[in-house]
């Protein structure tokens, strides 16, 4: 019989370990900061970590699951397994306040609130949302590309300090 | 050489494969732009959109593989089916053409898939399908907006870009009729609550693209009697070449992994 206290402390310990597992594509954030770890459960034998992918085609999904299991194993918390949960769909609103601060420090402008579903407007010359440069703070910035190095980011540049930067898109 | 798998007919599975294969084959065509985009940013954008489509296809194929008499995983379904067992609409298997052709096709297909995902996300009695659709809907909105912005630019660009855009629309339009032809598979899906009959998607699709065509000063081509039949497994002559390239590795080296 596993005591409730032992279960609770194993789950707490697992959350602490997961808070140190970086996202492979945005290593400034942990998988917890990103909001993709939805639950940690303990059935007395195996730890279950419930993960929700950010994008359907996110190539890091398998790597994240492997990293999570490796970290839990190394901390002596195994055996563990991961479960994929699609619903509700991940939203950038799940990125923690701490995660947003880390993103900005890393040079990536965090996403604004997603809000409700807005009608789509089409434009030959799209005015991208005005974003302050994460390096110099200038509002004189422009979007270079709606898609960046990964599906979750757009590419910008600052017209004041001339540095490029990325924007984590609201989704 | 790895032998093919043959699927026994199952209406639910067929309905899912029509969507899954449409995503997968469009992903294959879109990814052909990788390294060939007209500008670097567009190269990256197209690769990103192809990746979203592959992700959507993977999720749907994995789910469809659990529904038939024999269970198959997503890789078996993607790489070991023969042409006749592919259920994608013909529109997505046509060669990628020039950039205008790709942009016009992406507008037409992203708008269609967006209407499909919106219905599936809110109405499907299949919880897994609804969950896949809820995620895919957000992605399709980005795809549609991106392609539509380009459509406006090309239609209002140079005489050359406008000419190519009009020509692409003329070539692609006849293939859109297939999207809205309902049949027994649709009827079964509608009855069980799996998803909408595709014919019901025509109105929301037109409501989406008509204002866009007006803004681009493009007139909708006239309807024709031509009907493509990809979703019934009868494909264009381009499909075999596409599958030969996509499936070669798994056929020649069964079970091979990276």
TrEMBL record, chain A:
It comes from the Bacteria. Residues 123-169 form the PaaD zinc beta ribbon domain. Pfam families: FeS_assembly_P, Zn_ribbon_PaaD. InterPro entries: Fe-S_Maturation_MIP18 (IPR052339), FSCA_dom_sf (IPR034904), MIP18-like (IPR002744), PaaD-like (IPR011883), Zn_ribbon_PaaD (IPR056572). Coiled coil: none annotated. Residues 12-74 form the MIP18 family-like domain. This is Phenylacetate-CoA oxygenase subunit PaaJ.
From TrEMBL, chain B:
It holds the Pfam family PaaA_PaaC. It comes from the Bacteria. InterPro entries: Aromatic_CoA_ox/epox (IPR052703), Ferritin-like (IPR012347), Ferritin-like_SF (IPR009078), PaaA_PaaC (IPR007814), PaaC (IPR011882). This is Phenylacetate-CoA oxygenase subunit PaaC. The gene is paaC.
């Amino acid at each position: 019989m596993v005591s409730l206290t032992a279960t609770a402390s194993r789950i707490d310990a697992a959350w602490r370990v997961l808070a140190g597992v970086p996202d492979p594509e945005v290593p400034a954030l942990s998988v917890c900061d990103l909001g993709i770890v939805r639950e940690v459960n303990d059935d007395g034998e195996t730890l279950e970590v419930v993960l929700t992918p950010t994008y359907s085609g996110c190539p890091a999904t398998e790597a994240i699951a492997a990293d999570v299991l490796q970290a839990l194993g190394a901390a002596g918390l195994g055996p563990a397994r991961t479960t994929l949960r699609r619903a509700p769909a991940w939203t950038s609103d799940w990125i923690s306040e701490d995660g947003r601060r880390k993103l900005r420090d890393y040079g990536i402008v965090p996403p604004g609130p997603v809000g409700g579903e807005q009608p789509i407007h089409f434009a030959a010359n799209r005015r991208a949302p005005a974003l302050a440069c994460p390096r110099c703070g200038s509002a004189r910035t422009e979007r270079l590309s709606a898609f960046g190095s990964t599906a979750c980011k757009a590419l910008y540049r600052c017209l004041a300090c001339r540095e490029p930067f990325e924007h984590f898109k609201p989704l | 050489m790895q032998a093919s798998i043959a699927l026994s007919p199952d209406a639910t599975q067929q309905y899912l494969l029509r969507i899954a294969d449409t995503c997968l084959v469009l992903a294959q065509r879109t990814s052909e732009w990788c390294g060939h985009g007209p500008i670097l940013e567009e190269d990256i954008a197209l690769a990103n959109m192809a990746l979203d489509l592959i992700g959507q296809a993977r999720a749907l194929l994995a789910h469809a593989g659990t529904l038939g008499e024999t269970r198959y995983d997503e890789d078996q379904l993607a790489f070991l089916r023969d042409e006749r067992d592919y259920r994608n609409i013909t529109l997505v298997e046509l060669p990628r053409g020039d950039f205008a052709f790709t942009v016009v096709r992406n507008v037409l297909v992203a708008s269609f898939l967006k209407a499909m995902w919106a219905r599936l996300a809110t109405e499907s009695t299949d919880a897994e399908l609804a969950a896949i659709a809820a995620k895919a809907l957000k992605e399709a909105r980005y795809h549609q907006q991106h392609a539509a912005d380009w459509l406006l630019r090309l239609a209002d660009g140079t005489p050359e870009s406008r000419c190519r855009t009009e020509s692409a629309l003329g070539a692609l339009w006849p293939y859109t009729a297939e999207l809205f032809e309902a049949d027994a598979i649709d009827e079964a899906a509608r009855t069980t609550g799996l998803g909408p009959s595709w014919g019901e998607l025509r109105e929301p699709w037109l409501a989406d693209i008509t204002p866009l065509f007006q803004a681009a000063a493009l007139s909708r081509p006239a309807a024709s009697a031509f009907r493509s039949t990809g979703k019934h497994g009868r494909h264009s002559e381009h499909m075999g070449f596409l599958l030969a390239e996509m499936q070669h590795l798994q056929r020649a080296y069964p079970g091979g992994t990276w």
